[in-house]
Design brief:
The structure is a single chain. This protein is an alpha/beta fold. It contains eleven helices and 14 strands. The protein has two domains: 58 residues, DNA polymerase, domain 1 (Orthogonal Bundle); 256 residues, TIM Barrel (Alpha-Beta Barrel). The protein has a ten-stranded mixed sheet. The mean pLDDT is 93. It binds S-adenosyl-L-homocysteine. The site of S-adenosyl-L-homocysteine has 18 residues, from strand 10 and strand 12. Keywords: 4Fe-4S, Cytoplasm, Disulfide bond, Iron, Iron-sulfur, Metal-binding, Methyltransferase, rRNA processing, S-adenosyl-L-methionine, Transferase, tRNA processing. It is found in: Cytoplasm. It comes from Clostridium estertheticum.
Length: 345
C-alpha cells in the first residue's frame, strides 16, 4: 500500500487515468485530504467504486500521537509522533500573534554529528518521506484545531541530506492543491552542505534559507560540527552569495553561543568581517544545554555583547526568542528522553 500523502496531484491524476477513472477525481481527493484529513470512506462526492479502489491501493499516513507537552505560557506545544513503522519523531508548534508556526523533522535521527545537538546522538535511522513531513503538519493542525501558516524545517534531521523528499514536500506544501503555504512562509535550515545549497538556489524559490554557521572560523567550527571537515566557511559564504544573487532573499545565519568556544568579542569581530555587506541576518541562540555533553551556554552579558559588536558592524542580529525550554523543545531532546525511558519534569 502507498501513502497517498507521498503523491503530488499530477501523480494521482495519472493513477486515476490508468485505473480507468476521471482525472478530476484526484483534485477531489486532494481537497478532502488537505482540508481535514478525511478518510476515503467519507469522501461523499466520490463514487463508492472509486473509494473502494483508493482503499485498496492507498492509506493516509497520519502519525499517532504518543506524547504531548504544552509550555506553561501555552504558546509552545511539542509532540512526539509515531510513524507507521514505529519510529518516533518530534515536532513543535509555536503560536505567534501573526499565526501558527510548525517546526518539523526531516529525518529520524541525523548523521551530521553536531556536538551540541541531541538529534544526532543515535545516528540516522532513516529518511522521512514527503508525505510523512506533510502529515506532521496535518496532524498538528488537527490537534490545535487551527491552521498552521508557517513551516520551518528545523526539527531533527538534515534537510539537504534528504534532498529529493524535501523538494517534493515543498512542492506539495506550497501548492494551492496541497496545503497552500506560501514560499515566503517556509524556512529551511541546513548545516551547510554546499553543493546542495547551490542546487537549491537553482530552483529559485522564495524560501528563507537558514545556515547553521555557529563559528567564525573553520578551526572553531570543526570542534562542534564534523561537516566543517568537508566544506569550509569560505565555500559556505560563496554559495550563500550565490543563493542571494539568484533569489534576492536574505539569508539567516544561525549561531549557537557556547561558553568559551565561540562567544568572545574577537569571535564577533571575525564573524562581522565574514558577513560584511551581505544580505543577511544573524540569529544568536544561547546553546540549549543537553545532558549528553558538557557544552555550556554563554552568559547573558556575553550574548548581549556579541550582539552589540555585530550591530556596530552593521549586521542585523536577533537573539532567538526562547520558547518551550520547559518542555525540552530543543532538537531531538524529547525523542531521546523517550527512547531512554525518562520522564520529563
Ligand atoms: N540540520 C539542520 C536543521 C536542524 S537543527 C541544521 O543543521 O541547520 C536546527 C537548528 O538548531 C540548527 O541551527 C542547529 O545547529 C540548532 N541546534 C541544535 N541543537 C541545539 C542546541 N542544543 N542548542 C542550540 N541550538 C541547537
Amino acid at each position: 500500500m502507498i501513502n497517498i500523502l507521498d503523491m503530488d496531484l499530477e501523480e494521482l491524476k495519472q493513477w486515476m487515468k490508468s485505473n480507468g477513472e476521471s482525472k478530476f477525481r484526484a483534485k477531489q481527493v486532494f481537497d478532502w485530504i488537505y482540508k481535514d484529513i478525511c478518510e476515503f470512506e467519507n469522501m461523499n462526492n466520490i463514487p463508492q467504486s472509486v473509494r473502494g479502489k483508493l482503499q485498496t491501493y492507498f492509506y493516509i499516513g497520519i502519525p499517532r500521537l504518543i506524547e504531548e507537552y504544552t509550555s506553561k505560557n501555552n504558546d509552545t506545544r511539542k509532540y512526539l509522533f509515531e510513524l507507521g513503522d514505529g519510529n518516533l519523531i518530534e515536532c513543535v508548534v509555536m503560536k505567534y500573534k501573526h499565526g501558527n508556526s510548525i517546526c518539523i523533522s526531516t529525518q529520524v535521527g541525523c548523521r551530521m554529528g553536531c556536538k551540541f545537538c541531541a538529534s544526532t546522538i543515535g545516528g540516522m535511522i532513516r529518511n522521512i518521506s514527503p508525505g510523512e513531513m506533510l502529515a506532521q503538519i496535518l496532524k498538528a493542525q488537527q490537534l490545535i484545531n487551527e491552521r498552521i501558516s508557517n513551516v520551518v524545517l528545523m526539527g531533527s534531521g538534515e534537510p539537504f541530506d534528504n534532498f529529493d523528499n524535501v523538494m517534493k514536500f515543498l512542492e506539495i506544501v506550497n501548492s494551492e492543491n496541497g496545503l497552500n503555504i506560501g514560499q515566503r512562509h517556509i524556512t529551511i535550515s541546513t548545516c551547510g552542505i554546499v553543493p546542495k545549497i547551490k542546487e537549491f538556489a537553482d530552483f529559485n524559490m522564495q524560501i528563507t534559507l537558514a545556515i547553521s554557521l555557529h563559528a567564525p572560523s573553520d578551526e572553531i567550527r570543526v570542534k562542534s560540527m564534523p561537516i566543517a571537515n568537508k566544506y569550509s566557511i569560505a565555500e559556505i559564504i560563496d554559495v550563500s552569495k550565490y543563493y542571494i544573487d539568484k533569489t534576492n532573499r536574505r539569508i539567516t545565519f544561525e549561531y549557537a553561543l557556547v561558553k568559551g568556544l565561540n562567544d568572545s568579542k574577537q569571535d564577533a569581530e571575525k564573524l562581522s568581517a565574514l558577513l560584511k555587506d551581505m544580505l543577511c541576518h544573524v540569529n544568536l541562540i544561547p546553546v540549549n544545554e543537553i545532558k549528553e555533553n558538557e557544552l555550556e551556554r554563554s552568559s547573558n552579558d556575553d550574548v548581549t555583547e556579541f550582539k552589540r559588536v555585530l550591530e556596530a558592524n552593521n549586521i542585523q542580529t536577533t537573539i532567538r526568542r526562547e520558547m518551550g525550554l520547559d518542555i525540552n523543545a530543543a532538537c531531538g531532546q524529547l525523542r531521546r528522553s523517550h527512547i531512554k525511558g525518562e520522564e520529563l519534569k
